[in-house]
Design brief:
The complex is a heterodimer of chains A (354) and B (344). By secondary structure, chain A is an alpha/beta fold. Chain A has helices at residues 54-61, 84-91, 101-104, 111-121, 130-140, 157-169, 187-204, 215-221, 239-244, 249-257, 297-301, 335-353, and strands at 5-18, 23-38, 43-47, 69-74, 77-78, 94-97, 175-179, 207-212, 224-229, 232-238, 307-309, 312-314. Chain A has a single domain (1-93, 173-354), classed as Rossmann fold (3-Layer(aba) Sandwich). Chain A contains 12 helices and 12 strands. In chain A, α4 packs across α5. The termini of chain A are far apart. The model of chain A has no long low-confidence stretch (mean pLDDT 88). Chain B has 344 residues and is α/β, with parallel strands linked by helices. In chain B, α5 (127-138) crosses α6 and α8 (175-187) runs parallel beside α9. The longest helix of chain B has 18 residues, at 205-222. The chains are: A alpha/beta (354), B alpha/beta (344). At the A-B interface, α6, α7, α8, α10 and α12 of A face α8, α9, α10, α11 and α12 of B. Chain B: Keywords: ATP-binding, Cell membrane, Membrane, Nucleotide-binding, Transport. Chain B: This is Dipeptide ABC transporter ATP-binding protein DppD. Chain B: Its main location: membrane.
């Protein structure tokens, strides 16, 4: 059975050129041999720190930047080899939501114009019914009808992200790449947008490629998680398994480093030292070895291949030796907090009913 | 034990200390922008003692950064204006001292760390030069002594090969390294008060953990008072002794960290805690707070949170709730508090 979206061997190298002859002076291997599947209604999260190449993966798989190697297929159709016209209609099925909707929405277009454009371009609406279709989109994304006539600057961050989502949704895509969609938002608004994305997925069966640095958000939204370090997937596993028993020391350190909103748990001190190395000059062997507490001679010499382990995949020579677990049993919401939430929820329902 | 001025639990524990180290009283800050008056901070009060870390949490626009800038008196005037209140550092009102004295305090007794070190470090001077300048201005060290001390400071904050890094320009360093330089600069003159405004927000989690560790170590070593402005409840839970929760320019809840997390009282605080996705818990659907923060130019009578609060009554919409103490050190600005009365 083939998956809805299949990414195979996706590679993107950027070349640094110098001098009059523009000779290649260095190569940044931003994404290397990336493989994953996304099925209908599934969310694959791509997690990593800044500069690890996660955004490059998203942009390359959409063909927004040409791939160095590799293939992407959507419903069995090759994406990256399409000519311009075919690519344009393929774009209908593959959309993207950016971190900063302010930078990705045209400031001179009203929301109605922004949403109408893709509808008309892809023959999904006629000039006669386009305003009705726009109104439907606004409604689905939790915006009010009167928002249609407004410009991006008139919205708050959360509302603007809703417009960004409505724009991506306009063409009824199969896959949406969400590139840090909630990172710029406040916590209370972030929760609204996450819930909206989940609702839309349930309703339309969209597959998400969810790019994020926030492991708590990812745990919440993802079906599977791929952890990227310096342009390579170092671990991929179903969400529950990954958080319960991380198999790569880097994944473990990411999980341990996230501060937990609970003063009664003792946070262990920083699990890894040092910075992400330069992608221009990656370390030999396993790219993580200079920061890895488990590193041995073999790690410095031999790059570990991604290999299957316990239903997931991991690229570490010593994955079996990681004993320390992550968070197996999810702790429920503290009863104290839950009771208070219930009170607020009931009051909200009542005032809504009045 | 209820006192009128609501000291933090730290001050209470010490008892003997009559004057808190830092006391902010009824601070009011306004911005005059194109004919409108935006009241960014309204009646904010709290205290902070030596050796303690106070977290100031809230979402964007709640006034937390303006509060921290006010303590250093760095709010640009105009358009900003200190409309009322006092900021007492060991009893002396920082809003009244002459500018020359304030300049001596900034970078001297008061150290500052900002979110984006790239924009707060000078790009045309080496990291070492910037630290040396601060040392010679505030501590009057000789060139040679300042050079040694700068390298020592860079070493203290965990920068690898500090001697070489001292000759690097900010752009040559990574984000985490730049933040370490920023911390070294803030610590250069042994401040008693360290103000950190979102010091780890721009950093990756593994680097964030390192920086928070570093700040914790330094606080222990120097006994400085730390004010940590953040939007991240996780950071607060792990690093702060006391917390102030701000909403739309006001303090809505103030408590020791443990007490706040064990017994959140304000509907906003409760909503905020439930809205955070947790790495250690699968909590189904995230709770949301419907609506959005009111814009700063909007005149609001009554509680600022009333329009989003399911418990709001007529009183909430017309009268501004004062911060009342429910248990020692735990104050909340809500007419419906304590929430237990609503629950039963």
């Amino acid at each position: 059975m083939t998956a809805m979206l299949e990414v195979r061997g996706l590679t993107k190298h950027f070349y640094m050129r110098r001098g009059i002859l523009r000779r290649i002076a260095g190569t940044v291997q931003a994404a290397n041999d990336i493989n994953f599947d996304v099925n209908e209604g599934e969310t694959l999260a791509i997690v990593g720190e800044s500069g690890c190449g996660k955004s490059t993966i998203g942009r390359t798989l959409l063909g927004l930047t040409p791939a160095t190697a590799g293939t992407v297929s959507l419903d069995g159709e090759q994406v990256l080899t399409l000519d311009k016209t075919a690519m344009r209609s393929m774009r209908r099925k593959m959309q993207i939501i950016f971190q900063d909707p302010y930078g990705s929405l045209n400031p001179r277009m009203t929301v109605a114009e922004t949403l109408a454009e893709p509808l008309l371009l892809h023959d999904l609406a006629t000039p006669a019914d386009v305003s009705q279709k726009v109104a439907e989109l606004l409604d689905i994304c939790g915006l009010q009808p009167w928002h249609a006539g407004r410009y991006p600057h008139e919205f708050s961050g959360g509302q603007r992200q809703r417009v960004g989502i409505a724009r991506a949704l306009a063409t009824r895509p199969r896959v949406i790449v969400c590139d840090e969609p909630v990172s710029a938002l406040d916590v209370s608004v972030q929760a609204q947008i996450i819930n909206l994305l989940e609702d839309l997925q349930r309703q339309f069966g969209i597959g998400y490629v969810f790019i994020s640095h926030d492991l708590a958000v990812v745990r919440h939204v993802a079906t599977r998680v791929a952890v990227v370090y310096l342009g390579r997937i170092v671990e991929e596993a179903p969400t529950a398994a990954l958080y319960a028993q991380p198999r790569h020391p880097y994944t473990l350190s990411l999980i341990k480093a996230a501060p937990r909103p609970d003063p009664s748990v003792e946070q262990i001190s920083a699990p890894v030292q040092g910075d992400l190395p330069s992608a221009l000059n990656p370390p030999s062997g396993c790219a993580f070895h200079p920061r890895c507490p488990m590193a041995q001679d073999r790690c410095r010499k031999e790059r570990p291949e991604l290999r299957p382990l316990d239903g997931g995949k991991v690229a570490c020579h010593f994955a079996e030796q990681i004993q320390e677990g992550g968070f197996g049993e999810p702790t429920p919401v503290p009863p104290m907090l839950q009771r208070r939430l219930d009170v607020l929820e009931r009051a909200r329902a009542q005032s809504g009913a009045e | 034990m209820t006192t009128a001025t609501l000291p933090t639990s730290a001050a209470e524990a010490r008892g003997k200390q009559s004057v808190p180290f830092l006391e902010v009283q009824d601070l009011e800050v306004e911005f005059h922008v194109s004919g409108t008056v935006q009241r960014a901070v309204q009646g904010v009060s709290f205290t902070l003692d030596r050796g303690r870390t106070l977290g100031v949490v809230g979402e964007s626009g709640c006034g937390k950064s303006v509060t921290s800038l006010s303590i250093m008196r760095l709010v640009p005037q105009p358009p900003g204006r200190y409309a009322g209140g006092r900021i007492l550092l060991e009893g002396k009102d920082l809003l009244q001292v002459p500018e020359a004295e304030m300049r001596a305090l900034r970078g001297g007794r008061i150290g500052m760390i900002f979110q984006e070190p790239m924009t707060s470090l000078n790009p045309v001077y080496t990291c070492g030069a910037q630290i040396r300048e601060s040392l010679s201005v505030h501590s009057g060290l000789s060139r040679a002594a300042a050079r040694d001390r700068a390298v020592e400071l860079l070493d203290l904050v965990g920068l690898p090969s500090p001697k070489q890094r001292a000759d690097d320009y900010p752009h040559q360093l990574s984000g985490g390294q730049r933040q370490r330089v920023m911390i070294a600069l803030a610590l250069a003159n042994d401040p008693d008060l360290l103000i950190a405004d979102e010091p780890t927000t721009a950093l990756d989690v593994t680097i964030q953990a390192q920086i928070l560790d570093l700040m914790g170590d330094l606080r222990e070593r120097t006994g400085a008072a730390v004010m940590l402005v953040t939007h991240d409840l996780g950071v607060v839970a792990q690093t702060c002794d006391d917390v102030v929760v701000m909403y739309a320019g006001r303090v809505v809840e103030r408590a020791p960290t443990k007490s706040l997390f064990a017994d959140p009282q304000h509907p906003y605080t409760i909503g905020l805690m439930a809205a955070v996705p947790r790495i250690d818990a699968a909590i189904g659907r995230l709770a949301t707070i419907p609506g959005a923060v009111p814009p700063p130019w909007k005149r609001i009578t009554g509680c600022r949170f009333a329009s989003r609060c399911p418990l709001a009554t007529e009183q909430c919409r017309t009268e501004d709730p004062p911060l009342r103490e429910l248990s020692p050190g735990h104050g909340v600005a809500c007419w419906r508090a304590p929430i237990e009365t609503v629950m039963s």
